[in-house]
Amino acid sequence: MLNSGTGHLGSIDPASGAFEPRAFCPGFLRGLAFHNGHAIVGLSLPRDGSFGGLELDAELRKRDADPWCGVQIVNLASGDIVEWIRLEGDVSELFDVAVIPGARWPVATGFLNDEMHRAYTFET
């Protein structure tokens, strides 16, 4: 489970209903997928430059960390961040993440350029 307001990935204790943090991710959490014992988590930057009013703002200050946009891969057994991709520049928000098992070269193309007219094919 994600707690976007705190930046934590965690679980819910079925007996008490309490949220138990497992990993801290330095951004507003959006999107969650699971694959081979790992959680894939999307992170977004704040829209107005501040996470004011959220526990995430205090957590970032406590850790002397800056928020960032990207994807983090969390080992579910240990809570460790094992891989990450940080996105900078014009991209400041992610809205979802997905796992595409067996994909060798996934590509996203834009509508405003000619990439839509080229096809990539790989024979095995």
Task: Report what the structure shows.
The chain has one domain. It is globular. By secondary structure, the protein is mainly β. The protein has a 4-stranded antiparallel beta sheet, with no helix packed on it. Strands 1-2-3 form a 3-stranded antiparallel beta sheet, with no helix packed on it. Helices cover 6% and strands 34% of the residues. The longest helix is centred in the middle third of the chain and has 8 residues, at 55-62.
Topology:
Layout: E1 2-3, E2 8-12, E3 19-24, E4 28-35, E5 38-44, H1 55-62, E6 69-75, E7 81-87
Spans of at least 5 consecutive residues whose pLDDT stays below 50 are none
Radius of gyration: 17 Å
- For the secondary structure, the number of strands is 7
What's the N-to-C terminus distance? 38 Å
Q: What composes the largest sheet?
A: 4 strands, antiparallel
Summarize, please.
The chain has 124 residues and is mainly β. Helices cover 6% and strands 34% of the residues.
